[in-house]
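Thread amino acids onto this structure.
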């Protein structure tokens, strides 16, 4: 039927906080349904009990009517007509009591029993599966803690790894299959809840209809058509439920067959399995990691759910629905480390060295993917921070401004003796030029003339950024070929640097 919500079976292995939250909503919905069906069953049992009592009372009433002719009235009135009439009424009422007994049987089979079965079988199964799921989840967490404590120094001890991997395999497989069955049970409940409520009502109305038909008080044809349509709809839901159960079973088998590396994240040599392939092109990742937390004068490792969002590393406990910021990955540093005798540990340090975090992955492949993801994110953010190339109109305006100031062609090479060794040297050269220009201005204005106003904006002001740019000085005696014949030797340089280099040679500001 359309509009039925389902839990995705594929998310059972993910076990993310979002999936846990959605699972809790489905379980809470089942508990509300259980409470409602329980109250509905109490009312249905009351109707059945009263219907049985009505049938017994009617039958007893019929017997009382039949016993009328055996009464010895003191007056001794001969009232045979009345006695015969009473006997006829007794026979009719006795027949009515038999109809009521049939109605009570029909209500028991078609009204009370389906509700009782739905409550005691399907809804109780949800409670049982929830307990099994929580126990399996707890066992899986304990196995993960034990698995994570395997010594890196004694990594060559195959026996310890085999035992840890076997325990991990059993607990994780049990948890995964329990989760799949629990998800499937909750999904089936979304179908059964419709049939479990409609079938009892259908049985109740059919029983009443049969009762009235037996009493020659038939119901209208329209209601029969309506009940027929309801019966067809219920049968259709049963058909869909069978198909859904088959699909769920096939999906479970397929998912289980593809979860080899999920059950055993780090295969041992005796398993004859290759490690899981590492995808170094991924740019986003999510999963559980152990994080090193400070506890007093010592440290402890806590298992949390981590994921990348944009350029940030986020953390999210199971009890929370939203994640919290751990670190900005822009220009961060990540490396493999050995801490607390644990395997697969890596360390992330922020760009400003103020934040750092130690994380432990489940396997070497998982650690390599996390490292690749962080590096890809940091590399992509660095590329986005680079300034964009200037437009062709800006290049033309710069070229015309340079030629108007007396410049010739663009420089070909830079004199190593005049090349600044760092950005600070470039800035110092520029500051010296500014101070020299200010001293000239003060000497020219010694006649107590007011200082001139700021010069009008030049075409360069619309192109060059106001921030200082690192550039290289040129030798005045070098040839300056045309801009289009600029050689491609060495690393590419930005247009702002080329323009500033030319100005450095030709403008009096830098003298």
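Threaded sequence (511 positions):
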């Amino acid at each position: 039927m359309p509009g039925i919500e389902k839990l995705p079976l594929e998310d059972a292995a993910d076990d993310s906080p979002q999936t846990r939250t959605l699972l809790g909503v489905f379980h809470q919905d089942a508990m509300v349904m259980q409470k409602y069906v329980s109250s509905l069953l109490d009312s249905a049992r009351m109707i059945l009990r009263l219907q049985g009592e009505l049938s017994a009372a009617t039958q007893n009433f019929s017997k009382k009517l039949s016993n009328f002719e055996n009464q010895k009235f003191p007056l001794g009135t001969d009232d045979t007509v009345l006695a015969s009439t009473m006997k006829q009424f007794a026979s009719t009422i006795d027949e009515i009591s038999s109809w009521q007994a049939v109605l009570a049987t029909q209500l028991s089979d078609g009204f009370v029993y389906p509700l009782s079965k739905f409550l005691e079988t399907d809804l109780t199964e949800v409670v049982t599966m929830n307990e099994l799921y929580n126990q399996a989840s707890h066992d899986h967490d304990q196995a993960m803690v034990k698995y994570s404590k395997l010594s890196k120094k004694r990594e060559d001890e195959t026996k310890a790894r085999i035992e840890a991997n076997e325990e991990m395999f059993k607990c994780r497989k049990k948890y995964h299959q329990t989760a799949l069955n629990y998800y499937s049970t909750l999904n089936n409940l979304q179908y059964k809840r419709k049939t479990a409520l409609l079938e009892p009502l259908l049985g109740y109305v059919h029983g009443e209809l049969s009762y009235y038909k037996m009493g020659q008080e038939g119901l209208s044809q329209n209601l029969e058509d309506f009940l027929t349509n309801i019966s067809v709809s219920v049968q259709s839901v049963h058909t869909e439920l069978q198909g859904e159960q088959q699909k769920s079973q096939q999906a479970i088998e397929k998912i289980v067959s593809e979860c080899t590396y999920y059950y055993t994240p780090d295969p041992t040599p005796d398993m004859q399995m290759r490690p899981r392939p590492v995808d170094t092109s991924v740019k986003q990742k999510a999963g559980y990691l152990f994080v090193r937390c400070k506890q007093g004068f010592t440290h402890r490792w806590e298992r949390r759910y981590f994921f990348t969002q944009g350029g940030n590393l986020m953390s999210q406990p199971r009890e929370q629905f939203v994640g919290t910021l751990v670190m900005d990955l822009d220009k961060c540093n990540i490396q493999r480390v050995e801490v607390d005798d644990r395997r697969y540990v890596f360390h992330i340090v922020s760009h400003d060295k103020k934040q750092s975090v130690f994380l432990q992955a489940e396997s070497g492949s998982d650690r390599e993917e996390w490292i690749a993801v962080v590096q890809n994110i940091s590399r992509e953010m660095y590329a986005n921070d680079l300034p964009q190339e200037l437009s062709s109109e800006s290049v033309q305006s710069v070229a015309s401004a340079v030629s108007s100031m007396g410049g010739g062609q663009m420089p070909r090479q830079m004199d190593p003796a005049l090349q600044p060794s760092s950005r600070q040297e470039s800035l110092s050269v520029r500051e010296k030029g500014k101070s020299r220009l200010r001293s000239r201005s003060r000497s020219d204005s010694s006649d107590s003339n007011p200082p001139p106003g700021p010069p009008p904006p030049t075409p360069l002001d619309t192109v060059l950024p106001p921030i200082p740019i690192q550039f290289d000085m040129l030798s005045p005696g070098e040839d300056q070929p045309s801009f289009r014949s600029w050689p491609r030797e060495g690393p590419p340089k930005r247009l702002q640097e080329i323009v500033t280099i030319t100005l450095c040679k030709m403008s009096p500001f830098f003298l």
